[in-house]
Design a protein that fits this description.
The chain is mainly alpha-helical. 85% of the residues lie in helices and 0% in strands. Helix 13 runs antiparallel to helix 14 and helix 15 runs antiparallel to helix 16.
């Protein structure tokens, strides 16, 4: 089951950044400005905001097998429709469709971990599955311009169709794995059968928890940073003088580093260490963005390493904290993670849009990079608030 979730999340990661190395040819072909392209890149997080909470309730009610299979069909359709887009509006709709399938995967994956793993194994399983989208990101950045574009004669539409076809294949593999009799037993134990009113009550109970409120605020900043750099880093490097294929390879470096971190850091993120780990990850991410302002290869190497450390595990550790917050259990994990992604994707929308708009206004990416540094500092401040609330909560609980 962990392997099946990993494979689906790999396809998610592949398509979520597939357009980042193609920003230049798509923009030229369709006549788009950076501001417009930034809005298009943020289309699926925009849909995600509205869809995530209902998708969380849907996963809790329907179960993993069918909800994740439906998710694969939707994101594959998103990839196929991007390939036939003919203007900004059709491309926006095609990218936005990903925001319906994406939440089912982002929510279903942690729910699978909650159902199948406990204790220290849960942290390790979180680290393992989060390498799926990370590796998908990395391969999309590395292979799009260096392999697939030359293979298709520079046809970005055919590249996106190749990705969509692969994602369909992952869906078939998942359907076979999810049909195992043991999984059917586990799913029945983890389902909720509330009415719509009951589901809304679950959301309301979760939102009343102070720690969840702060985690949701942190998630906005974390996704602002993550989506901004995931979508714009290849173009930042290309406009700095790199060839497109070289920029794609460099852009994959933080993801490769993040994969190693994802296998190690969530497992180490025991309750006593979590604040320190989250604090360090946030600082690394912000410093990695600001290092892109410094010229020279040594600074670029440092920037990639720091970004890889910061981006690779922050979201996984945040979700782990959420899953083990008082009031969250395997039966309402889908609803809790749905709320997480509904809030987080506000940052996912604003990040790409803000960087694209700042570039159009200033003629470069420096202002956007300073903005990312400021967002990382705000996340550090929210983490301090989270730690204070957690300490008061523990003191009150012990009394």
């Amino acid at each position: 089951m962990l392997g099946g979730v990993w494979l689906i999340y790999f396809g998610f990661g592949l398509l979520s950044v597939a357009m980042a190395p193609l920003v230049d040819p798509i923009s030229r072909d369709l006549g788009l400005s950076y501001t417009t392209m930034g809005a298009i890149l943020g289309a699926w997080p925009l849909v995600y905001i509205v869809a995530a909470a209902p998708c969380g309730a849907f996963v809790d009610r329907v179960g993993l097998k069918w909800s994740l299979f439906l998710a694969v069909l939707v994101i594959a359709a998103s990839g196929g429709l991007r390939a036939v887009a003919f203007d900004a509006a059709t491309l926006f709709v095609a990218v936005g469709l990903f925001g319906i399938g994406g939440p089912l995967i982002s929510i279903g994956a942690p729910k699978a971990i909650a159902q199948w793993f406990q204790g220290a194994e849960r942290g390790l399983a979180m680290g393992v599955y989060i390498t799926g989208p990370a590796l998908g990101n990395m391969l999309a950045l590395m292979l799009t311009n260096s392999v697939l574009m030359p293979l298709t004669g520079g046809n970005w539409r055919q590249v996106l169709l190749i990705y969509a076809g692969f994602i369909l294949a992952t869906g078939l593999a998942w359907f076979l794995l999810g049909s195992h009799p043991i999984n059917r037993v586990v799913e029945r134990a983890g389902r909720r059968r509330e009415t719509v009113a009951g589901q809304l009550a679950v959301f309301a109970r979760l939102l009343r928890l102070p720690n969840i409120q702060v985690i949701l605020a942190i998630s906005i900043g974390a996704f602002f940073f993550h989506h901004a750099l995931s979508n714009w880093l290849p173009e930042i490097l290309r406009t700095g003088g790199m060839a497109p294929d070289v920029a794609g390879i460099w852009s994959a470096a933080p993801t490769a580093i993040g994969i190693v971190g994802a296998l190690l850091i969530p497992r180490l993120a025991t309750p006593s260490r979590r604040f320190t780990i989250l604090f360090g990850l946030s600082l690394c991410g912000g410093a990695g963005a600001l290092m892109l302002l410094v010229a020279g290869t040594p600074a670029l190497v440092v920037a990639m390493i720091l970004q890889g450390i910061g981006r690779g595990s922050l979201i996984a550790v945040l979700i782990l904290v959420l899953m083990e917050t008082r009031g969250v259990d395997p039966r309402n994990t889908g609803a809790a993670v749905g709320l997480f992604f509904s809030a987080a994707e506000i940052g996912g929308v604003l990040g790409p849009l803000a960087i694209g708009a700042a570039s159009d206004l200033t003629g470069g990416f420096d202002a956007g990079l300073w903005l990312l540094g400021a967002v990382s500092a705000a996340v550090v401040g929210l983490l301090c608030l989270h730690r204070g609330i957690e300490r008061r909560d523990k003191a009150a609980h012990s009394i």
